[in-house]
Design a protein that fits this description.
The structure is a homodimer of 110-residue chains. By secondary structure, chain A is an alpha+beta fold. Chain A contains 7 helices and 3 strands, in the order H-H-E-H-H-E-E-H-H-H. Chain A is elongated. Chains A and B meet through helix 1, helix 2, helix 6 and helix 7 of A and helix 1, helix 2, helix 6 and helix 7 of B. The first copy, chain A, binds a DNA duplex (30 and 30 nucleotides) through helix 4.
DNA sequence: TCCCTATATCAATACTTCTTGATATATGGA
DNA sequence: TCCATATATCAAGAAGTATTGATATAGGGA
């Protein structure tokens, strides 16, 4: 995770619809949701949703998998963890080993 | 932490200088840094830095304390933790008790 | 009080981003 | 092949944001 990547990720999360999408996908967990279902759930038009999903995907916070005619999206926990690690780098007086394990656990692989 | 607060925080972190400032303050830990020192370290003009510090402070990611003529800024770990908690709310199939303790530990009170 | 240092605010310009209607691409079924 | 569904792309107008020069406020020292 480099700085530009982190900036893209934070920009992705700083818009209302995209924040809703990410949190929805966090809740959906490994099941994920199709683009259409996400749009229906949040009441967002098709092309707007597509654009916003594209922004989130390019930022590394979500990933997608084609499934027939639909595309299923998932929260990308590796991306999320990488973002946190970047943000917290060198925290705690340059002793990141104190925080890093905590960050690593935040994978929600629960 | 409500949604608008979270949006403000992510918007704050989605700008290059502000991301630098926050990471610098994460490194600085409890010591913090004065506004002037932050500006000097990052090579940013006085009024630009003041505006950016204001954005970060209003978003709840940093806090400040006047110290004579200077103002010392600190990363606000409670704000950071609240943001993560909001983002990860209802993760892991609606069993947040699995993640919340991890998030709570991420206070970098190390 | 007067001045110096440290930080904040203001107004304007430049820049970026969001949304939308229209349209294109991709997949599956008949 | 032809059509229907699902998603993506494009161009343009609207809205929001960053930076800057100038200026204001706040605190400390003489």
């Amino acid at each position: 995770m480099d700085k530009n990547h982190a900036l893209d990720a934070f920009a992705a999360l700083s818009q209302s619809t995209r924040l809703d999408v990410f949190r929805l996908l966090i809740k959906a967990g490994d099941t994920g949701m199709s683009a259409g279902d996400i749009g229906d759930t949040l009441g967002v038009r098709q092309n707007t949703m597509s654009a916003n999903l594209g922004v989130l995907a390019r930022s590394g916070l979500i990933r997608s998998m084609r499934e027939g005619r639909s595309i299923r999206y998932f929260a990308d926990m590796d991306g999320m963890r990488g973002l946190l690690a970047f943000l917290m780098e060198d925290c705690c007086g340059g002793r990141p080993e104190l925080c890093q394990p905590v960050i690593n656990e935040l994978a929600c692989a629960c």
